[in-house]
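Lecture notes, part 5. Sequence design as translation. It can be helpful to think of inverse folding as translation between two languages: the language of shapes and the language of residues. The source text, in structure tokens, appears below.
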């Protein structure tokens, strides 16, 4: 087994954590799970599979993932979300890499985002390149509260994939972004003093649909393409509509905890 640490951050991932750990064990000598207070069996399952489990109150996406890196024993790490899996082709590629003599600081890997069993290849969902295999002494995640990423600095893009089981069905596609992502985005924008007008939600929502359906080729992918473009548009509209609500409605604003973004 190569000197690679697999890292996963979790919160109530008992349905996914077993598969994620088993996937990382195909390439990693150790598995680090950094949990932010799961109330289900996530930690127990991880420990039963030999993972090293640490607890950390959620700091925000980038900070949390960088904190997980601190627990890794090896310089080279593979960061995986609980609902992701390595493809056999990616496993074979990594097993051939001599990380001790590697000239690149990391590798950007394509991600196959799925709804149910359907691989979504439009609306910017593929190829969705992300640096997931990298030297933690050279690279780390951006310190942002959401959508943190590892910059592509001295990295190489490879034509191998991660499977991402993003949503179980179309219902989740609409429900999860509306409930979680749009609220989190709106809170972050409010805290950062983002300016907004009454027209902003409409403008951004329409632009998101137009770009994804036409320019990002949703139009060529039938019902799924239209549905995905519409869901992205709705999420975009909602985050700006919620920001506008925070700005103009003191009752709604006072009912939110802006210290807790997620």
């Amino acid at each position: 087994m190569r000197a690679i640490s697999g890292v996963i951050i979790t919160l109530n991932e008992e349905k996914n954590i077993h598969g994620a750990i088993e996937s990382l064990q195909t390439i990693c000598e150790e598995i680090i799970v950094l949990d932010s207070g799961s109330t289900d069996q996530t930690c127990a399952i991880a420990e039963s599979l030999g993972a090293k489990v640490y607890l950390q109150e959620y700091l925000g996406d980038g900070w949390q993932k960088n904190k997980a890196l601190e627990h890794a024993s090896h310089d080279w790490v593979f960061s995986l979300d609980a609902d992701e899996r390595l493809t056999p082709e990616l496993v074979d590629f990594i097993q051939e890499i001599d990380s001790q003599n590697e000239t690149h600081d990391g590798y950007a890997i394509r991600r196959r985002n799925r709804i149910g069993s359907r691989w979504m290849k439009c609306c910017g969902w593929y190829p969705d390149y992300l640096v997931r295999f990298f030297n933690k002494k050279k690279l780390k995640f951006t310190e942002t509260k959401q959508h943190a990423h590892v910059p592509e600095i001295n990295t190489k893009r490879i034509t191998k994939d991660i499977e991402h089981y993003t949503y179980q069905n179309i219902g989740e596609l609409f429900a999860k972004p509306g409930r979680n992502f749009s609220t989190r985005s709106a809170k972050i924008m409010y805290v950062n003093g983002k300016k907004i007008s009454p027209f902003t939600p409409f403008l951004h929502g329409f632009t998101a649909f137009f770009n994804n359906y036409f320019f990002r080729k949703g139009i060529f992918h039938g019902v799924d393409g239209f549905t995905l473009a519409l869901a992205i548009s709705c999420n975009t509209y909602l985050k700006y509509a919620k920001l506008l609500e925070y700005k103009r409605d003191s009752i709604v604003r006072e009912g939110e905890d802006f210290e807790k973004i997620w």
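The translated text above is only one of many valid answers, since several sequences can fold into similar shapes. The chain has eight helices and nine strands.
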